[in-house]
Design a protein that fits this description.
The chain is 24% helix and 17% strand. The chain is an alpha/beta fold. The protein has a single domain, classed as Rossmann fold, CATH 3.40.50. The strands form two sheets. The protein has a seven-stranded mixed sheet, sandwiched between helices. It is found in: Golgi apparatus membrane. Belongs to the PC-esterase family. TBL subfamily. GO terms for molecular function: xylan O-acetyltransferase activity. It is a single-pass type II membrane protein. Keywords: Golgi apparatus, Membrane, Signal-anchor, Transmembrane, Transmembrane helix.
Length: 327
């Protein structure tokens, strides 16, 4: 769905713009160097579909030097590079915390209940096996869900308890911050996790004229914005994530390390880098606005490959150089 050229996108400039950080250079990704640094090690992407987007970007780049073997299953994707014994893993964890659809208080069966103070037990079970973890989360907090703390409903999104008039204590931004702190604190205190955790900051979307489910569009964006595209929700989610990261790191008791990879503002410029309407190989898909001006269904959240998302993996490689490369 992120193969924009394969899906018929006619322009290509979005592939060639590169991020130039202030006061330093960011080298192009060196696939052989990555596999050398990760020899005998495992890197796991944990989180939502944007985590999958970044993982697939990394695999596409590494595939240029070696085709990996797929050794995964429906619970955990696993790609193995034989030459160096490097494994790339992906674990799906939409919210990074425990969730259930069972009824609780007024919230009926079928609605996702997020236990914000309990980390996702599936990925926590596996993290001692990982040398590097890249975390991605946040966008599922725009979906319908109920927030639970200490077994009590404290907030909700796109649902409201019948007959309840009082204001909720925790909205979706606050819930996101709590979930990040819960997951990272559990990792920081895990006695058997000694790996490096890279927290990739909140990925900005660029829907205009509506949200992902209300007709939002990025059709026609073919070059980066001249000024960063600001979004109040993105800014709020980013602030919550960063402050939660800092609080969790202060609680570190184990041997693990934590790095914040802050891409949010830099990628606020890249409204050109999303698939937009080019998210399907269907040759009959509609890619233009209708007579009434309404845009076609599109994706202004994920990132084209190749495209801006590849930069995230260049940043990951730079972090690995500093962590694992011999002086």
């Amino acid at each position: 769905m992120q193969n924009c050229q394969g899906n018929g996108r006619p322009d290509k400039d979005y592939e060639n713009w590169r991020w130039k950080p202030d006061q330093c250079d960011l080298p192009r990704f060196d696939a052989r160097k990555f596999l050398q640094l990760m020899q005998g090690k495992t890197l796991a992407f944990i989180g939502d579909s944007v985590a999958r987007n970044q993982m697939e970007s990394l695999l596409c780049i590494l595939w240029q030097v070696e085709a990996p073997r797929n050794r995964g299953n429906r619970h955990m994707q696993r790609w193995f590079f034989h030459s160096t014994g490097t494994a790339i893993i992906r674990i799906w964890s939409s919210w990074l915390v425990h969730h259930t659809r069972d009824p609780i208080e007024d919230a009926p069966m079928g609605i996702d209940k997020l236990h914000l103070d309990v980390p996702d037990e599936f990925f926590m079970e596996h993290i001692p096996k990982f040398d590097v973890v890249v975390l991605s989360s946040g966008h599922w907090f725009a979906k319908q869900s109920v927030y639970v703390l200490n077994g009590t409903v404290v907030g909700w999104q796109l649902w409201r308890p019948p007959g309840r008039s009082q204001k909720m204590a925790v909205d979706n931004m606050a819930a996101y911050g709590i979930s990040v702190e819960t997951a990272l604190t559990a990792m920081a205190k895990h006695p058997n996790y000694t790996g490096l955790t890279i927290v990739r900051s909140y990925s900005p979307d660029h829907y205009e004229g509506g949200a992902w489910n209300t007709g939002g569009s990025c059709t026609g964006k073919v070059e980066p914005a001249a000024q960063v595209v600001r979004n109040g929700f993105t800014d709020g989610m980013h602030r919550r994530q960063v402050s939660s990261f800092r609080r969790a790191v202060e609680k570190t008791t184990g041997a693990s390390k934590f790095k914040l990879m802050d891409i949010t503002e830099g990628f606020g410029y890249r409204h050109d880098g999303h698939p937009g309407p080019y998210r399907s190989p269907d040759p009959n898909k509609i890619t233009w606005r209708g007579p009434d001006g309404r845009p076609p269904s599109q994706d202004c959240l994920h990132w084209c490959m190749p495209g801006p998302v590849d930069t995230w993996n260049e940043l990951v490689l730079e972090i690995l150089r500093r962590e694992f490369d011999s002086p």
